[in-house]
Amino acid sequence: MNPLPDPAPPSRSPASWFARLAGLAWIILCFELGVFLLVYPWMDGWERNEIANWRPGARELWNNPFVRGAVSGLGVVNIGISLRNLYSYLRQLLFD
Hints:
3 helices; single chain; mainly alpha
């Protein structure tokens, strides 16, 4: 009785140009959003935003430095995500 041979491991097909373009677009979007969230809370336009007028007392909360810092922190997280995705993207592009 002959045992069946082990099947060959499945080969990974190279990513299509559309998948590569979509990955690159996602990286750029995350980076741009991160930079915007990092910088915009400290600009003059932040204080003139209409969101702060939706409720009474919202302007004090909106202009609070801790809220601005939290939004900037989200920007740092987005930049980190984009850099991690860029590392994975380049690693897959160069080594696969």
